[in-house]
Amino acid sequence: ERKIGDEFEKILLHNEQLNAQQAELRAEAFEEKKRQIERSTREEVKDFLRRTEEELKNRELEVEQFIEMSQNYVTPENLNQKLLDALENPLDLEFAIDTAGNVYTGNKTKKYLEEFLSIETKFSAESAPCVRTGKLEPKEIA
Description:
By secondary structure, this protein is mainly alpha-helical. The chain has helices spanning 2-70, 79-88, 128-133; strands spanning 95-97, 103-105. The chain folds into two domains: 1-73; 79-133, no CATH class.
């Protein structure tokens, strides 16, 4: 019986050693997995920040392009100047090209004469809301 008890103690000790080794291996595997997750998370965050910064730069460039383009828009403030510019630089899109490559232009647009030009800058109180909204329906007069 004593021999069986000693052998049992020996087996229990060996089992505890195996359990300790397995626990250590599990802890190492857990730490490695944790480091791997931290690395991948860091990489994902860096990638997200890089993409976000790139998108922000693209948006800023797009806004700058829109601002640059908007300088040529016709607004109520620059309407008269745009009309005068268009009249100063007439554009004739009527032309023909024959098979030999000769270009035949349409009628030359005549330059305007300022004495015949009348550009109104003010709207009447009744027509101003119609002009600004684009609604051309006359208001009912009470």
